[in-house]
């Protein structure tokens, strides 16, 4: 089954209903598969902050990821994503992406104009010099960071295994229609021997400098009102990676996990 509900019915109606606060911080350790060995090779954080945009209330979403210096020789990554979104339906107002991926640089800035139904982009990468472009703003279109938080606010209680959720994102000056597939409930144990009750999903990836594309990312999120990703596993061009939740602050609801008895 494919869920085709209007985007307004999928989003929370105000910030009080969101699965996260305006001061949430979560950090992940990233491991790279080297043959039969998993090496801790990077770290990623996500955070939210209160932000004013023009005369409307807003939130700033931010994510930063990096490979550790000792492992830059494998596939060096530095990336920061930030979005300013409204507090009513998580619609993006602005989005910035500045990334370096093994020699390939990309700098994108978008402004979403809902009145004129236009998307204004300032775009530059290693293959194309700086240029500006204007796109028709498609209904429900989001940047990839906003989409990550948007999905956390969805109600999965009535979903069946293999149901898919379509998501339209703007990435690198192009629209992509991807989806997230619900794979059911699963209990997992992380590298700190914490046991989590999770909802499991797969995601259709966009082909690029890191990913081959295809349904090659799996995400386990807490089976509670937070829906915080606990573990992410993905195939990449140079192998595979896993990210494990390490630390968190400012979460809206207490995170509950079990530790097995010795």
Task: Describe what you observe in this structure.
The chain is mainly beta. The chain has one domain (7-249): YmcC-like fold (Beta Barrel), CATH 2.40.360. It is built from 3 helices and 14 strands. Strands 8-7-6-5-4-3-2-1-14-13-12-11-10-9 form a 14-stranded antiparallel beta sheet, with helices on one face. The longest helix is centred in the middle third of the chain and has 9 residues, at 144-152. The radius of gyration is 18 Å and the shape is globular. The protein starts with 6 loop residues before the first helix and ends in a 13-residue tail after the last strand. Residues 1-13 have low confidence and may be disordered.
User: How helical, in percent, are the residues?
Assistant: under 10%
The CATH class assignment is: Mainly Beta
CATH fold naming: YmcC-like fold
The count of DSSP E runs of length 2 or more, i.e. the number of strands, is 14
Let me know the largest β-sheet. Answer: 14 strands, antiparallel
Number of helices: 3
Low-confidence stretches at least 5 residues in length (pLDDT < 50)? 1-13
């Amino acid at each position: 089954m494919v869920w085709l509900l209007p985007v307004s019915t999928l989003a929370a109606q105000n910030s009080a209903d969101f699965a996260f606060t305006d001061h949430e911080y979560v950090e992940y350790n990233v491991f790279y598969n080297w043959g039969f060995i998993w090496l801790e090779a990077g770290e990623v954080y996500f955070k939210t902050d209160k932000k004013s945009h023009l005369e409307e209330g807003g939130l700033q979403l931010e994510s930063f990821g990096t490979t550790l210096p000792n492992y830059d020789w494998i596939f060096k990554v530095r990336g920061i994503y930030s979005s300013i979104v409204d507090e009513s339906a998580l619609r993006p107002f602005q989005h910035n992406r500045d990334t370096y991926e093994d020699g390939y640089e990309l700098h994108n800035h978008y402004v979403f104009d809902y009145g004129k139904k236009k998307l204004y982009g300032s775009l530059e990468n290693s293959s194309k010099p700086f240029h500006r472009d204007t796109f028709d703003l498609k209904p429900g279109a989001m940047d990839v960071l906003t989409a990550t938080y948007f999905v956390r606010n969805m109600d999965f209680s009535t979903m069946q295994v293999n149901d898919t959720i379509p998501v339209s994102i703007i990435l690198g000056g192009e629209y992509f229609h991807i989806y997230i597939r619900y794979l059911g409930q699963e209990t997992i144990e992380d590298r700190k021997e914490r046991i989590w009750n999770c909802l499991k999903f797969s995601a259709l990836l966009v082909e690029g400098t890191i990913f081959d594309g295809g349904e090659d990312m799996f995400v386990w999120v807490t089976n509670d009102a937070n829906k915080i990703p606990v573990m992410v596993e993905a195939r990449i061009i140079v192998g595979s990676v896993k990210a494990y939740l390490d630390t968190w602050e400012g979460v809206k609801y207490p995170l509950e996990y079990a530790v097995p008895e010795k």
